[in-house]
Amino acid sequence: MRTRKLWELAESKGSRLIVALDSVPVEPKKLVKEIEEYVVGVKVGLPLLLQWGSQAVRELCEAFRGTLYMLCDFKLADIPAVMVEELKLISELGFDGAIVHLFQGGIKAVATAADRPELFGLAAMTHSESRLLEVHFGELVHEALEAGLDGLVVPATKPELVRAARKIAPGATLLAPGVGAQGALPGSALEAGADFEIVGRLVVASPDPCLAARAVRDAHRARVSVISEWR
Ligand code: O7M
Questions:
Q1: What is the pLDDT of residue 230?
Q2: Left if phi > 0, otherwise alpha if psi is -120 to 50, otherwise beta: which for 148?
Q3: How far apart are CA 191 and CA 168, in angstroms?
Q4: How far is the CA of 13 from the centre of ligand 1 (A)?
């Protein structure tokens, strides 16, 4: 099974939390060290790359790849030939997985490339204005499934879409951002059928990121034990 590392970490750490690192106020390695115990992985966004540089990203992957799932979020959406090249470089930086858009088409060719990280396709987005993606939600989920991607990103702020994705793709690994600063409550996306929640500012911008990460992890634990009794 792809995403094996992610699921093994979820099991061994009892966590469903992936922390989003975009604008980080302190040196990224220092921040990740503080929250490492409570999270299964971190998602590195373009703001971090642009602020700290690719060497810092490489060092972050080197330092934590052994204990965390390293997810690259540059939301790629180019022609297949360029995406294949981008993904090879992302793998070389040390990432386990990467986020890709689906609307541009051609994801099947991208997914068959060698040297690619695991791929998560964006099926919908959290903000209310992402109307055009939503119109094509079902088609985008099918596009990802047909290409054999490893998982999907679905919005915690729109639980009906999380539920719909779970129905269409019962075996897919579903990652849900939008918890905390964007309004969804910790655990709510897990309850709707997601497997992991992606949380940024609620943890990263907290005066005590360690405490904030632990609180979200604990909220997840409570939900996951209830959910596994249901299923
Ligand atoms: O918790 P926040 O709002 O501080 O951060 C949310 C993170 O999730 C941030 O890194 C966004 O880029 C990301 N995200 C969304 O907020 N909305 C989406 O629809 C999709 C993502 C995402 O992670 O895509 C992979």
A1: 45
A2: left
A3: 17
A4: 23
